[in-house]
Amino acid sequence: MNTNTQNEIESREIAKKREPKARRPGGKTKRGEKKWLLRIFRGYDAAGKRIYYSETFHGGSREADNRLVELHNRQKAGLPLTFVSKTFKDFFEEWLEERDDGERRECTIEHYRNIGALYLLPAFGKFALTDITDVAIARLYKDMRKRELAQATVLLAHVLLTNIFKLATKRGLVLINPMAKVEGPGRPKPKPAAMTTDETQKFLDAASSRPEGFMFALAFYLGARPCEYLGLKWSDVDFNERRITIQRSLKIRKNGEWYVTPPKTETSIRSIALTESFVKGLEDHRRRHLEMRLRAGAEWTDHGFIFTDATGEPLKFQTIRRTYKKICVEAGLPSTWQLKASRHSCASVLLKKGASLKVISARLGHSSIAITADVYSVVEDQLQREASEALEEAFKFGKK
Question: What is the pLDDT at residue 271?
Answer without folding.
Answer: 93
